[in-house]
Amino acid sequence: MSSLVTLDHIHKQHRLGNQTVHALSDVCLEINRGEFVAVVGPSGSGKSTLLSILGCLDRPSCGSYYLHDEDVFAQSKIRLSELRNRHIGIIFQDFNLLPRLTALENVALPLFYRREPMRNPTARARAVLEEVGLGTRMRHMPAQLSGGEQQRVAIARAIVNDPDLLLADEPTGALDTSTRDAILALLDVLQRAALTVVLVTHDPEVASYARRTIRLRDGAIIGDTGCRGAA
Amino acid sequence: MRSLSYVHLAFRSVRAHISRSILAVTGVVIGIAAVVIVVAVAEGARAEISRQINSLGSNLLLVQPGAQVAGGVRQPAGTVLSLTTADALAIAREVPDIVIAAPFVGEEKTTISGDLNWSTLVAGVTPKFFEARGWRVADGQLLNDDHVASAAKVVVIGRTVARELFKGSDPLGRFVRIERSSYLVIGVLAEKGQDFTGRDQDDVMFIPLSSAKIFTIGRSQVNPEAVHTILVKTESAQSMQAAETAIARVLRLRHKIVGRKADDFRIQNLIQVAQTSDRAYRQFTSLVSTLAGISLLVGGIGVMNIMLVSVTERINEIGVRLAFGARPQDIRRQFLLEAVLLCTIGGLLGLIVGYVCARAIPSALGWPIEFNGQMALIAIACSSLVGVVFGLLPAERAARSDPAALLRSGL
Ligand SMILES: Nc1ncnc2c1ncn2[C@@H]1O[C@H](COP(=O)(O)OP(=O)(O)OP(=O)(O)O)[C@@H](O)[C@H]1O
Ligand SMILES: [Mg+2]
């Protein structure tokens, strides 16, 4: 297999009391290295669920997920942590920066949990913050930053460990349109620098930045513009 | 990243909720303070006992008349005057490993000098008594064998007696009246302080045993040779047990006690007496130990509670850490360390509070205290142990939280 991500008949059920919610049903998907994929669909269609499985944050009820030909959910918890640390970066709608750490420390967080230590982690974190245009805000606390700036810090944190896969759940949902465009432009730059980006959104305009769009409804893929994607 | 190290993180998060954290560790503070007090009092008692044992003289046995147990009822010592000077001589002669067997008679008397009077213990002894106890004079001289042989009317007085009867003037060469006789003061003993029963060991005066029998005290119609106590000094601490048995054998033979008949004397080991005399300390320390235990338990639960609240509040932080590569054990370690830090801060505060409280004990309760470096170690060890024990559950809960919840916040 040459693809970075392969999802093989993924199902995800949530149990709510005696009721079972099918968040994902029979999702098969391949994403190649360097793709820019948007996942769209109505609220409750399973977009975040799909992203949390891709991010190794949640286990599917059944089905397999291969990242780099590695069967993710056959791995130990320790290995899963390492996959999250080294191969995946995540961006959230509400940024999820740690409020008591400075911008620089937030960015350095994945380096702190890196198994094989880096020679100069602070320099690396600083370089990435400069890359996202926040070289002058390193010592700021998240509360002292604007929404757009916070999301840039979050992006820096997601890419600081050079992941293969960048996942974003409504990254611009909490931002105004001009900030939104700046953030999307940044993601576009990153993607062109050989990063694979999967972006969940409601917004068709946001989805238009992506080169491939996957549509979800009721937990199933109902459309995929990607030529090599399996529906 | 040094600034992200676990210890640093723990400090930050404790500091972020400083007043809440201090409230949570109040129990630990009280508990550790109680631990410090217990240790200070116990150490003080131990130091005091060994000091007293030193002042009593080492390797001493006390032989006193009276049945050890008569019909299950212990008779007060000295009600039957069964011991004699000859017994003392026999013990010295026949029991191996004995250095000294010193006879002693004593009675509380009112003594007079000029227009001052003072009630004190008047004891009739031989020079061997001073040797056994290792007592020396500060001024003048001790009783000697000539004084005993001639039943001289001389007296060696303790510091307290000197102070009460002579009010600062030099007692040497002056006279003390005991009953109808006057005694020349030939020596003042060096100061010794209180013994383990709290009795003032300087409130005493010594006259020759022979003089005491003739003029003043210990005259028994039944047994003119009777003495109140024979003080026995053995060669070493190891020989005390054997000496005790041998003395009993000698005395039973001399007193013609045979078969299952009870002894008419009793033998006490002064060190054992001193060690069992600290019942009040023991009651106090066991009470405060209980308080320490309860406080540490309450404190631990307080810390556990605050940590559980903290885990709930920081569920997002935990999720973020997990999402960026923290292993469950990293999260566990972080929260455990925070609980330990919280408790250790409580322990340090408790150390200070305990120190201040313990300082007040000697004047409030009259007990000696003793501080040492070990105490700080015990306090820190106890409090961090509380942190570990009561931090486990919150840390475990934190380590098991579900990072997928991060993406659900939009729902
Ligand atoms: N922990 C859970 N327990 C029960 N049901 C859940 C749980 N998580 C998700 N669901 C359900 O699974 C379905 C898919 O949820 P998901 O969060 O993936 O939707 P979404 O497409 O991201 O929606 P939105 O656009 O509103 O964020 C929903 O019906 C949701 O109610
Ligand atoms: Mg969602």
TrEMBL record, chain A:
CDD domains: ABC_MJ0796_LolCDE_FtsE (cd03255). GO terms for cellular component: membrane protein complex; plasma membrane. Residues 5-231 form the ABC transporter domain. Keywords: ATP-binding, Cell inner membrane, Cell membrane, Membrane, Nucleotide-binding, Translocase, Transport. The keyword Cell inner membrane applies. One of its GO terms (molecular function) is transmembrane transporter activity. The keyword Transferase does not apply. Coiled coil: none annotated. Pfam families: ABC_tran. Belongs to the ABC transporter superfamily. Macrolide exporter (TC 3.A.1.122) family. Involved in beta-(1-->2)glucan export. Transmembrane domains (TMD) form a pore in the inner membrane and the ATP-binding domain (NBD) is responsible for energy generation. This is Macrolide ABC transporter ATP-binding protein. It comes from Bradyrhizobium macuxiense. The lineage of its organism: Bacteria, Pseudomonadati, Pseudomonadota, Alphaproteobacteria, Hyphomicrobiales.
